[in-house]
User: What shape does this take?
Amino acid sequence: IIWAIRKFRHFLYGTHFTIYTDHNPLTSIKTMKDPRNRRARWLLELEEHTFDIKHIPGNKNCMADALSRSIASFQISADESIEDMQKDDDEIIRIKENLISKQKFAGKTNLIVHENVLCHHVRSGLKPFIPTKKRREMF
Assistant: This one.
């Protein structure tokens, strides 16, 4: 959680957010009595933020499963697929056209077009390239 808060600090700062966890003891971190060493440092860092921590039993925590699994057929909603989102993004259209016409461009060698969706090719599989405008909405 500390890693995630540090990573997304610029999105979280100044907003109230909720952390969902399947680790029940974590729900009492803000009320911990006499924290020491690392936990004390974590609490100092967490005090900058306004948030709630809620417990979800592991077998009901589908959010964690969704974040840790491949999203080959991921959709934002029933109305809008990744392919539809990419159709509205000029940068993605240009990259897809270059890939399809076999042109090379610097820094984008791990990108491929799979079933008309621009994807990052990573060790764990294909990850769809999310348009910049939709990233905040999704994450």
